[in-house]
Amino acid sequence: MSEEHLQNIAEQYLTLKKIKYIHLPKGSQRFIWNKKFGIPIQVAMEASKALKGVPDLILFGRDGTYKLIELKSEKGKLTEGQKEWLDYGLELFREFDEFQKFVDEWDLLHNPRSIDG
């Protein structure tokens, strides 16, 4: 399974489970408008300089916790920047089934719900 496909189904699953998350797409960038020349200028996110290898997903629990998730294809390798996030609890997944099992267990612990749902 490609990394892009794994990312897509992972996000669909998180949405289905109503888990709050952030996904910063690779090459995240923004544009500013150059008034002098009347053209947009592409600017890399400032955070990308300080936070190389930012994980694919950051999940948020209702109890104030978070989890860093990196998704890779079977042969995909972590970059040096991504390896640095291992010290901060980064979880690496290569298969959707593994990701799904982890999310289900994490969700029960960190997203308590009332009986009403």
Strand order of the largest sheet: 1-4-5-6
- Based on DSSP secondary structure assignment, what is the total number of beta strands? 6
Please state roughly what percent of the residues sit in beta strands, choosing from under 5%, 5-15%, 15-25%, 25-35%, 35-45% or over 45%.
15-25%
Query: What is the C-level CATH assignment?
Result: Alpha Beta
CATH architecture label name = 3-Layer(aba) Sandwich
SSE string, helices as H and strands as E: HEEEHEEHEH
Do you know the CATH topology? Trna Endonuclease, Chain: A, domain 1
Count of distinct structural domains: 1
What does this structure look like?
It is a single chain. With 117 residues, the protein is of the alpha+beta class. It has a single domain, classed as Trna Endonuclease, Chain: A, domain 1, CATH 3.40.1350. The chain contains 4 helices and 6 strands. A 4-stranded mixed sheet has the order 1-4-5-6, with helices on one face. A two-stranded antiparallel ribbon has the order 2-3. A hairpin with a 5-residue loop joins strand 4 and strand 5. Helix 1 runs parallel beside helix 4. The longest helix is centred in the last third of the chain and has 15 residues. The model has no long low-confidence stretch (mean pLDDT 82).
